[in-house]
Please model this.
Amino acid sequence: MLPTGEVTMIEAVIFYFFAISTVISATAVVTVRNPVHAALFLVLTFFTSAVIWMSLEAEFLAIILVLVYVGAVMVLFIFVVMMLDINVARLREGFVRYLPLGLLVAAIMLGLMLSVVTSDVFVLDAGSEPLPKPADYSNTEALGGVLYTDYVFAFEIAAVILLVAIIAAISLTMRKREKTKYQVPSDQIKVRKADRLRIVKMPSEEKR
Model:
């Protein structure tokens, strides 16, 4: 964005193009019947959102969105969806059943977003313009400074919640199954040659 707050034609075209693409792809995520296609549309939504953040000079958030969500979470999600045997016909039957609830949740989220966007936080004073950023300005440094000072307590709570989720996921995968064979590394290290190899002496056969 320009320091004076003015928006050029190319910036407006880029914003509206990717904003419309984000809305269309996000709508396709909840309307398509194939789960794999829905995951791919969600990846497209992340990419277009990252471009919008990049145009708003939020480079760190844009890169994190691509690396974390597209590069890790969504790739894992696509692999899981493709490996599972999902009954698509059954999913189609439940779409109409949960449509009123989905519309209600969408209306609530839309109302919350409108209340935030139309608040005084995003309104500049009359005659004021955004101040130009210095040449050595780094939004990553500014974000880190705010995150680890004003919001450090909330950041630590989020870290504890993620740690509990990781421990819970590991504990669920380590449950014992009756027909599954497990390896015990300590027993494998203790194995000696005599436990695995036995030399049997046999008399040699006479040649005729």
About this structure: The mean pLDDT is 80. Residues 59-83 form the longest helix (25 residues). Residues 23 and 45 are 8 Å apart (CA to CA).
